[in-house]
Structure formats: C-alpha cells, structure tokens
Design goal:
Number of domains: 1
Number of strands: 7
Order of helices and strands: HHEEHEHEHEHEEH
Structural class: alpha/beta
Helix content: 40-55%
Largest sheet: 7 strands, mixed
Number of helices: 7
Strand content: 15-25%
CATH topology: Glycerol-3-phosphate (1)-acyltransferase
CATH class: Alpha Beta
Strand order of the largest sheet: 1-7-6-2-5-3-4
CATH architecture: 3-Layer(aba) Sandwich
Distance between the termini: 22 Å
Length: 235
C-alpha cells in the first residue's frame, strides 16, 4: 500500500509540476520578481501538502529564529529530491544554484530563469566559482534574494557526505554575507533512488549564522558541515 501511495504521489508531482511550469512561464512575464517567487512558494507548499496527504510524510522546522535579516547564503543538506522543492517554502525569497542542464527543460527551464536561478556548468572548475560569485553578488545586492546552495553537489545517501564545494562560502565571503547552515534528514524517508517514500516527519534544523568576513572559505565550509552533518541523523 505504501508503494502505491508513493507511486501516486510521484505521478502527481510530475504532472502538477509540468502544468504549473506552463502556467508560471506565461504569467511570470507580467509579474515582478517577488510575486514570481510567491508563485514558486505556492508550488512548493502544494507539493508538501500533497506529500503529507498521500504519503503521510510531513516536516517540522527548528531554528527559524536563526534566519538573519537581509539576504544571505544558505548551505543545505542534499540527500533527497524533497529539499529541491521544499526549500522554497522553508527559506526566505531565494535564488537557486543548479546545474545548467535543468534550464534546458521546456517550460521548467524558462520558469527557473524567470526566478533568477544561477545556472552553473559543473565541469568548468574555477570558472564556475567565479560565475557563481558574479551572479550571486547580483542576486544578493540587486534582487535582495538569498542564495541557496547544495554544497555536496549531488544527493548523498543518508549518513554519508562528501567534501563541500567552495562556491557558497566564496560568494558569502566576497559579498560580506553570512552563511546559514540548514540540516535535515529527508534522505531517510525519501531515498535518492527508487519510488518508495516512508511516512513520518522530516526534521529540518536551521543553524546559527556563520561569519565569513576575513575567513578562508574552506574553514567556513568545515564549520557549516560539522553543524549540518551533526543534525542530519536518523529519525
């Protein structure tokens, strides 16, 4: 029965997202950026509500008081597909850092561009970091958006991690912004592979802001990683 519920939600997720992307691509042309993000947040909340109703999988958020005023950089655990859409409902208005191939998807890619997502060529090495810093500065200063980065670069199995990419910390350091670590254990409920999704409650923990001024981005990453991995354990 749980597999059937998971299958139904997956079908809903794909169809709803595709149709919403078409709707968004049309109406976003006439809307300012903040209202575009409001529509993206509504998409996220609708999916989260469907996930709870169909699969029995909800979430809680701890540490909202740790979100500082202004626009900053969030480093978020990446262990599932869940956080790729839940981030819009959990964090302040934001620009997503993502692989450029996603912007090539019909309608979806157009919507991502309308949300001022930062598309990165992950094979470009140092050039990709420089591009991220340049685009990140514009999103933070001009658009007033947060930057959300998955520093592991790819979804990791529950209980595992890898060396964090330096991009998010480099953007924060170059712009004088804070790093906010965001941990969660979604991977234990919604694995990175397969259709099965377990019922339960995902725990999201927003950590205290980390200062970046005058610090090596690698040291900032290590501090953020310690917090995120310590708070991303099993339910």
């Amino acid at each position: 029965m749980q597999f059937l519920r998971s299958l139904v939600f997956t079908a809903f997720f794909l169809v709803f997202t595709f149709l919403y992307a078409i709707f968004f691509a049309v109406v976003s042309v006439f809307l300012p950026l903040r209202l575009r993000f409001a529509l993206a947040r509504n998409w996220s909340r609708q999916l989260l509500a469907a996930l709870r109703a169909i699969v029995g999988l909800g979430y809680t958020v701890e540490g909202v008081e740790n979100l500082p005023a202004g626009a900053h950089v969030a480093l978020m655990k990446h262990s599932s597909s869940w956080e790729t859409f839940a981030q819009a409902a959990i964090l302040p208005p934001q620009a997503w850092v993502l692989k450029r191939e996603l912007t090539w998807i019909p309608f979806v890619g157009w919507g991502l561009k309308q949300l001022h997502a930062i598309a990165i060529n992950r094979g470009a090495g140092g050039a990709a970091v420089r591009h991220l810093i340049e685009q990140g500065r514009e999103r933070l200063d001009k658009d007033g958006l947060w930057i959300v980065v998955f520093p592991e670069g790819t979804r990791m199995p529950p209980g595992q991690t890898r060396r964090y990419g330096v991009g998010g910390a480099a953007v924060a350091g170059a712009t004088g912004r804070l790093i906010v670590p965001v941990a969660h254990n979604a991977g234990y409920f919604w694995p990175r592979r397969g259709l099965m999704k377990r019922p339960g409650t995902i725990r999201v923990v927003i950590g205290p802001p980390i200062q970046t001024a005058g610090r090596d981005p690698r040291d900032v990453n290590e501090e953020a990683q310690r917090f995120i991995e310590a708070h991303s354990g099993p339910p």
